[in-house]
């Protein structure tokens, strides 16, 4: 059966990988809805069964227009201001995108004539905040400490509540630190790995470069390769028994920043010069996940840190 699938934020880093995977099944038509604020048109696969609609998720009018043109079988809501720092600097503006827009989309989905098979929302490990108990399970205390984390959690609650109140088929994915090709390294708030990979490539070409660590380099993170995130998202969408629940999507591995630098140095046979700056506001010392819950429905990461980094570095 032919499915029409909406991916908001599909021109972004994670969204574009999801679109690629969804479009590879020729029975799917994929609609990318994005305002290209951080996403890029070049990220969207140039395929017959993928269409791009330029629009803003915080505009009720744009959402209404979108749903008047299409009826969706699946919806993946990834559009967001994905920078925690941006939310700290502009809490009101980011709130409109990171939370209000979720309700517009849920409302449009609720009133769609055909029942959606699944509405999957992209949340974040940021909902857990700085509470120190580890690893983070879906039962862990939720205590977000930034506007970004608060909006993600409030959105999650709306999504789950729409499932419970109106019987909408929904699921929530809490991503840990995602890395991989097409992650933008040019903003000062970029993912640490995209910056590290850029620095490594410059050094490999014989250029001078330096990698700046905020803090002592011993902070622990769970970095998950983007293709594994896509695997998790599609599982949550397609497993019918999943209804109105949140799931961690992570690698289940933990690494310090120093360890990751060593892996990069080994892969590329280089030395990466380091400089150390102050810990950034809101940075958490340790964050890693239990993936037992999503593991029970068949999720299995395909990439170790080294394999993911090798694939990332081969790209371009
Ligand atoms: N990258 C990570 O490590 C990570 C971790 C946890 C959660 N997430 C979440 O995953 C999702 C995707 O993040 P990403 O890393 O791919 O970031 P990204 O910035 O590459 O992608 C976000 C996309 O949303 C689009 N967008 C932003 N505001 C919009 C608006 N008002 N209307 C329409 N489109 C809009 C952007 O243009 C971009 O294409 C986000 O919801 C983010 O919060 C990411």
From TrEMBL:
Pathway: Carbohydrate metabolism; galactose metabolism. It holds the Pfam family Epimerase. InterPro entries: Epimerase_deHydtase (IPR001509), NAD(P)-bd_dom_sf (IPR036291). GO terms for biological process: galactose metabolic process. Residues 5-250 form the NAD-dependent epimerase/dehydratase domain. Keywords: Carbohydrate metabolism, Galactose metabolism. Belongs to the NAD(P)-dependent epimerase/dehydratase family. This is UDP-glucose 4-epimerase.
């Amino acid at each position: 059966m032919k499915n029409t699938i909406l991916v908001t934020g599909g021109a972004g880093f994670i969204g574009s990988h999801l679109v690629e995977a969804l479009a590879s099944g020729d029975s799917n038509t994929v609609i990318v809805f994005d305002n290209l604020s951080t996403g890029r048109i070049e990220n969207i696969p140039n395929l017959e069964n993928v269409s791009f609609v330029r629009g803003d998720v915080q505009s009720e009018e744009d959402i209404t227009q979108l749903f008047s043109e299409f009826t969706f079988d699946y919806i993946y809501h990834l559009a967001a201001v994905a920078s925690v720092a941006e939310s700290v600097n502009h809490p009101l503006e980011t709130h409109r995108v990171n939370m209000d827009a979720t309700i517009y989309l849920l409302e449009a989905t609720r009133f769609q004539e055909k029942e959606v098979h699944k509405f999957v929302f992209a949340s974040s490990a940021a909902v857990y905040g700085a509470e120190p108990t580890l690893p983070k399970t879906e039962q862990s205390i939720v205590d977000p400490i930034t506007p970004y984390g608060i909006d993600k959690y409030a959105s999650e609650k709306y999504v789950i509540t729409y499932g419970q109140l109106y019987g909408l088929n929904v699921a929530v994915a809490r991503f840990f630190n995602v890395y991989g090709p097409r992650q933008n390294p040019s903003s000062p708030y970029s993912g640490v790995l995209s910056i590290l990979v850029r620095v490594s490539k410059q050094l490999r070409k014989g250029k001078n470069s330096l990698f700046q660590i905020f803090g002592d380099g011993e902070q622990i993170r769970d970095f998950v390769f983007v293709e594994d995130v896509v695997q998790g998202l599609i599982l949550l969408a397609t497993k019918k028994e999943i209804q109105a629940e949140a799931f961690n999507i992570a690698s289940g591995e933990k690494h310090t920043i120093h360890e990751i630098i060593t892996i990069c140095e080994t892969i590329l046979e280089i030395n990466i010069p380091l400089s150390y700056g102050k810990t950034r506001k809101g940075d958490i010392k340790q964050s890693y996940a239990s993936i037992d819950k999503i593991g029970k429905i068949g999720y299995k990461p395909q990439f170790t840190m080294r394999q993911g980094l090798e694939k990332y570095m081969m790209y371009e």
